[in-house]
Design a protein that fits this description.
transmembrane helix, Zinc/iron permease, 84% helix, membrane, transmembrane, ZIP, 0% strand
């Protein structure tokens, strides 16, 4: 039978492949859908994004929260803590508002930068080289300056929306990366051979779906920044192996188990709060606000949730049969 360290290294290599390949595949899917060059191309991307929302929703409430609650109860038993205060839930709320505050701060930063960059307009910029019918009408009524300012305002809003999309995608990547490190950590501390195999199988199944979903969000936000997209997915794919290897290293150190458990609980609960924010405010709410059918968006999100729920049922069945 393989040693603990050797087994974890093999797991890490396989986990990287099962995470990276679906992530890179999402770039191809996004480019192919966008390649049609029509407004209808946004519908499949919107539905895929809703599928992502369903996956993350199920991951949060069927996997992360139960796992964090279990770890918190274990920590309370090991530390002889008798308080009934819902500390785990409070930490989740702190994680939620931490990302909320960060996004609002970044939004202010982007707004100030755009206003400074567009404070001065040269005389040549007041005369557009090509005028749309709307601009022609504005010129006829109010003059070229108003039409140009209207065009400039639309350009600024588009640029701001694009920067916001990139930022939201990066927030999602950070959240999912942190979650992946914790998953890798959970795998790395498994010393029982059968338990490690069971957890590994369940991880590679749902990591593929998660990776595709994360890659989709990154690709949608930064399709004109291919190097950034590829690098981000590559780094994300490394997170679970890094967590697994880090867990093996920490497990072999002389470290207080109670303190170790407390640190894991705090980090995991904060990550869940950021996960909830990304799921509801960055994915589901954004897609519901667009022009596509909310009914079909709900159906596709439900499919994503059902898929993860089935994986959870399969994982529970495998653990019960061991």
């Amino acid at each position: 039978m393989l040693g603990h360290v050797t087994l974890q290294l093999i797991f890490a290599a396989i986990m990287f492949a099962f995470t990276a390949i679906p992530g890179f595949a999402s770039i191809k899917v996004t480019n192919r859908v966008r390649g049609s060059g029509t407004n209808k191309s946004s519908l499949p991307l919107s539905l895929l994004s809703c599928f992502t929302g369903g996956v993350f929703l199920a991951t949060c409430f069927l996997d992360l929260i139960p796992h964090a609650t279990e770890n918190f109860e274990t920590f309370k038993q090991n530390s002889s803590w008798k308080s009934t205060f819902p500390l785990a839930e409070l930490l989740m709320c702190i994680g939620f508002f931490a990302v909320y505050a960060l996004e609002e701060i970044m939004d202010v930063v982007f707004s100030n930068r755009n206003s400074k960059n567009n404070e001065y307009v040269t005389s040549s910029e007041l005369i557009p080289k090509y005028q749309t019918p709307d601009e022609v009408a504005l010129n006829a009524i109010y003059g070229a300056g108003v039409a140009r300012r209207d065009q400039q305002g639309n350009s600024q809003q588009t640029r701001k929306n694009k920067e916001g999309s990139v930022f939201r995608a990066m927030v999602l990547v950070i959240v999912m990366s942190f979650h992946s490190i914790l998953e890798g950590f959970a795998l790395g501390v498994q010393t029982n051979y059968s338990d490690a195999i069971s957890l590994f199988i369940s991880l590679i199944l749902h990591k593929g779906i998660e990776s595709f979903s994360v890659g989709l969000q990154i690709a949608r936000a930064g399709t004109d920044r291919k190097h950034l997209v590829i690098t981000t997915i590559f780094i994300y794919a490394l997170m679970t192996p890094i967590g697994s290897i880090a867990a093996v290293s920490i497990w072999n150190l002389n470290f207080n188990n109670v303190v170790k458990g407390g640190v894991i609980v705090v980090l995991e609960c904060l990550a869940i709060g950021t996960f909830i924010y990304a799921t509801f405010l960055e994915i589901i709410a954004v897609e519901r606000a667009n022009e596509h059918s909310n009914f079909w968006q709900m159906v596709v999100a439900g499919i994503g949730l059902t898929l993860i729920a089935l994986f959870q049922v399969g994982e529970a069945y495998m653990q019960a049969s061991l």
